[in-house]
Specification:
Length: 122
């Protein structure tokens, strides 16, 4: 059985997907303080990356790890929303899912610190 939401193809599908993506970004920005904080961090760090005398490849990595943290936060927020949609009751599996999402974000933020330190100090 196929999903009724999978009927579009071609340009229509791309336009629909773009709209859904924009809706997701807006929802994250409006509803998730952590996402807003990461956007601010990106607004600061990405322009700052152009102030350092590093290769284009190194600059790309500095920027990529910042954007990766945004991606991880979007996924973490999606996991939390899905868990909360299922039930607001406390359950060990729900806690594990939320904690793992949080851990993924911790790793992503740690990666920013490590990569920036290695490139700028190394």
């Amino acid at each position: 059985m196929t999903s009724p939401f999978k009927g579009q193809t071609g340009l229509k599908r791309i336009l629909n997907a773009s709209g859904y993506s924009l809706d997701g970004l807006i929802a994250a920005f409006k509803g998730e303080a952590a996402f807003r904080q990461l956007v601010l961090l990106n607004v600061i760090l990405i322009p700052v990356s152009f102030l350092f005398h590093v290769s284009r490849g190194e600059r790309a990595i500095l920027i990529a790890v910042c954007l990766l943290a945004l991606i991880v936060e979007l996924l973490n927020s999606a996991i939390e929303a899905a868990i909360d949609r299922i039930s607001l009751d406390r359950h060990p599996l729900s806690k594990n899912a939320k904690d793992m999402g949080s851990a993924a974000q911790f790793v992503a933020l740690s990666m920013i610190a490590v990569v920036w330190a290695l490139i700028l100090l190394g």
